[in-house]
Amino acid sequence: MLTDSGREESKNRHQIVVDFLYHLFNEENAPEWIEYLNNYLNLVELPCLHNLNISFTTSASIGSTSKWPVSLFLI
Which helix (H) or strand (E) holds 28? Predict the structure, then answer.
């Protein structure tokens, strides 16, 4: 997102996804994933990372004990 309006839209989309994940993890009683998300968000809130676009993907996990794994990627 190279323009000011694009950066603003990216922030809005980021917040929508973060809110969705918090609700999902709460609904599914997955505190370990809430902690993981919190740790990740603390990482990306560093000033040097503010201009990065963040996307989230959910997928079925192979060999995981958690019901709702999430992979977080910086693009």
Answer: none
In contact, 1 and 9? CB cutoff 8 Å: yes
21 vs 64, more confident: 21
**Tokens representing 7?**
């950066």
Residues in CB range of 66: below 8 A, 6 or more apart: 30, 32, 33
Going by the DSSP 8-state scheme, the letter that residue 49 receives in this structure is G
To the question of pTM greater than 0.85 for the whole model, the response is: no
- Residue pair 13/56 in contact by the 8 Å Cβ criterion: no
- The rounded distance, in Å, linking the Cα atoms of 68 and 8 is 29
Q: What are the tens digits of pLDDT across the range 40-61?
A: 999 877 544 444 444 444 444 4
CB burial class (10 A; 0-12, 13-18, 19+) of residue 4?
exposed
